[in-house]
Amino acid sequence: MSSGRLDAVPARAAPTQGVPRHPAWGWLAGAVALAALAALAAAPAATASDYWLSLGINLLQYAVMATAWALFSGPTRYVSLATVAFFGIGAYTFAVLGETWPQPVVLLTALGLGVVLAVLTGLATLRLSGVHFVIFTFGLAELVRQLVTWWEVNVTKSVGRYVFVDITQREIYWQLLALLVAVLALGAWIRRSRLGLALRVIGDDEQVASHLGIDTARTKILLFAISAGFITLTGAVMAPRWTYLDPAIAFNPTVSFQVLIMALLGGAGRLFGPLAGVIPLVLLFEVLSARFPNHFPILLGLVFLGIVYLVPNGVLEAVQRAGRPRRTESPS
Fold it and tell me: What are the transmembrane regions (predicted)?
């Protein structure tokens, strides 16, 4: 009989087959990660170019959001298009409160709003699956945008807001870098926990997960709220970058599709998969939006179709498969 608790799941999955890794690989990987983090933290001080700093902020913004999106959607295979709803809530919360409240308080307020919306959304929708969940999350993002627009027009009598705060581009960069480290560390912990195993079982077969005693609704809502929290914080951190915000900017639906494409390109089922998709696509979108601003949505759609058709499981898995030795069939 189902116990309805995550601790009904064994602490670790069955051991994977293959050659065990030497312990030295773990130390080497940790040293490389620390060196990369130090280099990224020092990068703003090493350049005086506003362009490179802006590009770094774009990379970190999408790295955080794609990794956070994959925390939930990767193992469960629930495709959420509500990314921009949480991003916009974070950005708009900062636009409203940023000039009067301390930044840490504003970030905590935005985080709370994003998590509450995610929990309410989860309670209402996570019993859905497949295309119904996709459509609902897309509709949620549009509903939030329309509600904010209605509030601005009918209550505040102003469509947009100016954001004038004493926060530099470098501070935004370092805050996004801290968010990226936090979401990667949390993702690594989840993958090794009962929670991560429960998510993988849910992604393989939700009915089997229920029969194993996994509280599927609670597990999905918890991860959906964590994912939404990081995305909301990203919006709040990014808000000072613009001096003017309106609902069309903060809740631009293109953001949801870009995050989805980046996670899929790298591989949403892997911890570092989204990063492998963020780097090439942010650079590609920089070129396309600068040279073809009027045709950018069309090109974005073509990139989406190409990724889904050519590398549906991500480039990292494609590279891994290409590196495996081919089996030779024995003569019968």
Answer: 24-45, 51-72, 79-98, 104-126, 172-190, 221-242, 272-292, 298-319
Handedness of CA 37, 71, 237, 99 (dihedral sign): negative
Look at strands 161-162 and 244-245 and give their pairing. antiparallel
Q: What is the DSSP letter of 17?
A: P
Half-sphere exposure of 126 (CA within 13 A, CB side): 24
**Over 80: is that where the pLDDT of 5 sits?**
no
The answer to whether 183 touches 64, Cβ cutoff 8 Å, is yes
- Measured CA to CA, the distance from residue 122 to residue 327 in angstroms comes to 44
Which two structure tokens, joined as six digits, stand for 60?
A: 């970190």
DSSP secondary structure letter of residue 119: H
Neighbouring CB atoms inside 10 A of 178's CB total 15
pLDDT of residue 38: 86
Q: Which helix (H) or strand (E) holds 244?
A: strand 244-245
CA distances from 32 to 27, 39, 184 (A): 9, 11, 15
**Residue 181, SS3?**
helix
Contact, 236 vs 110, CB < 8 A?
A: yes
Kindly list the distances between the CA atom of residue 320 and the CA atoms of 165, 168, 277, 280, in Å, as whole numbers in the listed order.
46, 41, 15, 19
Condensed to tens digits (0 to 9), the pLDDT of residues 98-143 reads 888 999 999 999 999 999 999 988 887 766 767 788 888 888 888 9
For 173, other C-beta atoms within 10 Å of its C-beta total 23
End-to-end Cα distance, the chain: 47
DSSP state of 50: H
How many whole angstroms separate alpha carbon 57 and alpha carbon 278?
12
What confidence tens digit (pLDDT) does each residue in 26-80 have? 677 778 878 888 888 888 887 777 888 999 999 999 999 999 999 988 888 888 8
Residues whose CB is less than 8 angstroms from the CB of residue 165 and which lie 6 or more positions away in sequence, other chains included: 98, 99, 103, 240
